[in-house]
Amino acid sequence: GTEGPGVSVSEERQSPAESSGITVIYNPYASLSIEQQRQKLPVFKLRNHILYLVENYQTLVIVGETGCGKSTQIPQYLAEAGWTAEGRVVGVTQPRRVAAVSVAGRVADERGAVLGHEVGYCIRFDDCTDPQATRIKFLTDGMLVREMMADPLLTRYSVLMLDEAHERTLYTDIAIGLLKKVQKKRGDLRLIVASATLDAEKFRDFFNQNDTGDPSKDTSVILTVEGRTFPVDIFYIQSPVPDYIKSTVETAMKIHQMENDGDILAFLTGQEEVETVVSMLIEQARALSRTGMKKHLRVLPMYAGLPSPEQMKVFERVSHSVRKVIVATNIAETSITIHGIAFVIDCGFVKLRAYNPKTAIECLVVVPVSKASANQRAGRAGRNRSGKCYRLYTEDDFEKLPKSTVPEMQRSNLAPVILQLKALGIDNVLRFPFLSPPPAQSMVQALELLYALGGLDMHCRLTEPLGMRIAEFPLNPMFAKMLLESGNFGCSQEILTIAAMMQIQNVFVIPPNQKTQAARQHRKFAVEEGDHLTMLNVYEAFVKHSKSSQWCQEHFLNYKGLVRASVVREQLKKLLVRFKVPKKSSEGDPDPVLRCIVSGFFANAAKFHSTGALHSVTFKEHSQPNILFIKTIRDDHELHIHPTSVLYAEKPPRWVVYNEVIQTAKYYMRDVTAVESAWLLELAPHFYQQGTHLSLKAKRAKVDDH
After folding, report:
1. Each residue of 258-309: pLDDT tens digit?
2. Element (H, E) at 352
3. What is the mean pLDDT of residues 185-213?
4. Which of 27, 293, 330, 525 is the most buried (most CB within 10 A)?
5. What is the average pLDDT value for the chain, to the nearest integer?
6. Same domain flag for 40 and 175
7. In the listed set 225, 250, 268, which residue is the last one of a domain according to the structure?
8. pLDDT tens, residue by residue, 522-569
């Protein structure tokens, strides 16, 4: 858990909007001195034992509940024991950016240091460290992998701690594989793998270099830190519920009316569900207070795209006559500890990224939670007192849940992974020591995409200079290719803005009670070509109005997100300057911009069918040579334009390219732009070629154009 006394953090995976501001958290020990607060943490009792194990083993696997203090305290114990002497650094990786920033802030406070000096952080697009002075460095696992491009053996680090390793993100797994290789060459490098769940044996066995069969020669060891936990009673429903959103609201209201004091934490899968439940609960709470109910209900949302001040409200204390209900995504599973939670409502589902190598489509999909996640959720009710967990599924269904969540490495598009490994000089990616090997088909699909983008040659080697440059961008390879081509299309200024805006979630703010007003304001920015140029309009208007927060409020725009986009844009601009990409503008002409987008996103093309849906353009081998055909997603599924797109409910264009697909009731494309089929032929001739009967076809595909 990324928590010390008074620090707790939150952010969903892939939440570019969450970047700034250090989280201020409720701290039950705030009246004590810093030193007394540190000594109250469960990990303190094991301080000397931890230091002994780090000294004597190359790898220490620590299992500790969220809230035991491992994230904030262990780096300090190491610094106090001399591991940062002579210019050496203790590094701590976090899967989430907000965690890296928040924990660094807390540790700096505890050490009486200015953040960015002795204690610093390094996240994508934001480096707050001093190369001369920083001794404890918090960074995302992705940034650690990037650092290895310049320093493959991580020579400045004496100890590296991989925190929240149980999350098994893409970059956590790459870092794990790389560090195993580094340890073979650097016997002095110590590694601490911290996990909130009991998959410790897997980590220990992976890093253990002892092949003698003699346990006394083991190079890795496990230590368990007991957290502050209280008993939690689990309640299941008798028969499955048809609508977990409605059941969440009903359960919360029953608890409020029938149970004693204690706040409620409800888990749902995404922002939309959270906002729906929040609105329904507020309405029911108002109705209840009109009937004379003395205890009031304070309903608060919690998800990654929520602005920081709104997030902070969940940690504020309330009077005894008020009960808090926090409606959250899985952000509240292990990354944060909210004081006062006595009741948890678990819908039993989670939204995950899933990649289907057959169709080359990666999408966000709602799936049942794992047992490990369900237990983490239940444990939220037992942090400060005994509690109750209401699972909106049957006990039989719980028994059928998978033991743990499938690691991202086994359900993601691997193109960015392969690119990074190639850039690190690992040519044979199939022999890389993955903790959980990815599917071979996903590897092949990723190699094909990188070849199509021009990042790899026929021998699967990184191309010079294009492949190396794509690898240097902290972005999806498609975005990197689009940026690097932008000078040739004479629109690098516009493409910089579009790429930066695409890293931000929820640019448009839609308050539940002001949907009509918000839609009216948002329409001012919309253009018929689609979402990419609409985002360009939003950003240019934001700059024209001096980046005013007041202007954003009036136009229902996410001010913090737009400020973040301007920071990201500056960082990307530096890379374009370094690679000598000409600074050019298309001066309002949309065509060069759209063609440039196609040059990066040609693989994400879809075509309108007269049935009213768009079919994805994907490719499949056929037993007979030159007989080529279209394959829709999962054989018979169709793609639809997401309701948030400016192209939704408009006359559909014949061809589009999209940024990503999400799956709810249907498969929806997000960030969609209308394009010409001729551009696909012109800009990706290696991918598409003119077929007979006015059709497009690829070497292993055919896409009818009628």
Report:
1. 999 999 999 999 888 998 999 999 999 998 888 878 789 999 998 876 765 6
2. strand 349-356
3. 90
4. 330
5. 85
6. yes
7. 225
8. 999 999 999 999 999 999 999 999 999 999 999 999 898 899 899 999
Name the more confident of 164 and 599.
Answer: 599
If asked whether residues 564 and 634 sit together in one domain, one would say yes
6 Cα distance to chain centroid: 24
- Is the distance from CB of 120 to CB of 128 less than 8 angstroms? yes
Question: Is 422 part of any domain?
Answer: no
Distance CA 465, CA 638 (A): 38
In which band, very low, low, confident or very high, does the pLDDT at 42 lie, cut at 50, 70 and 90? confident
Name the residue range of residue 561's domain. 473-706
DSSP E strands, 47-118: 59-64, 89-94
Tell whether 140 and 198 lie within a shared domain: yes
Are 187 and 319 found together in one domain? no
* Residue that is written with structure tokens 């007269």 in the block: 610
Q: Any idea what DSSP says for residue 165?
A: G
* Residues 184 and 260 grouped into a single domain: no
Higher local confidence (pLDDT), 640 or 581: 581
Of 4, 80, 82, 74, the residue nearest 46 (C-alpha): 74
**Do 53 and 176 fall into the same domain?**
yes
Using one digit for the tens of pLDDT, what is the confidence trace for 394-416? 999 999 999 988 899 999 989 99
Is residue 364 within 8 A of residue 351, CB to CB? The reply is yes
Q: What are phi and psi of 248, to 5 degrees?
A: -60, -45
Cβ contacts of residue 623 below 8 Å, gap of 6+?
Answer: none
How many structural domains is the chain composed of? 3
Q: Are 183 and 256 within one domain?
A: no
Instruction: Report which of 354, 273, 367, 274 is spatially closest to residue 314, judged by C-alpha positions.
Output: 274
Q: What percent of the chain has pLDDT over 70?
A: 87
Last residue of one domain, picked from the residues 210, 225, 240: 225
Sheet holding 136-140, edge to edge: 126-128, 119-123, 136-140, 89-94, 157-162, 190-195, 59-64, 220-225
CATH number where 704 lies:
1.20.120.1080
What lies within 8 Å, CB to CB, of 351 at 6+ separation is: 269, 270, 329, 330, 364, 365, 366, 367
Instruction: From residue 488, give the alpha-carbon distance in Å to each of 57, 135, 139, 585, 678.
Output: 54, 43, 35, 11, 18
Round to whole Å and give the CA distance between 120 and 343: 36
Q: Does a structural domain hold residue 425?
A: no
Given a cut of 80, whether residue 228 has pLDDT beyond it is no
Distances (CA, A) of 210 to 218, 485, 686: 5, 49, 49
- The CA distance from 370 to 213, in Å, is 34
Assess whether 243 and 324 both reside in one domain.
yes
- Predicted TM-score (pTM) of the model is 0.77
d(CA 414, CA 360): 11
Domain of 90, CATH number, reads 3.40.50.300
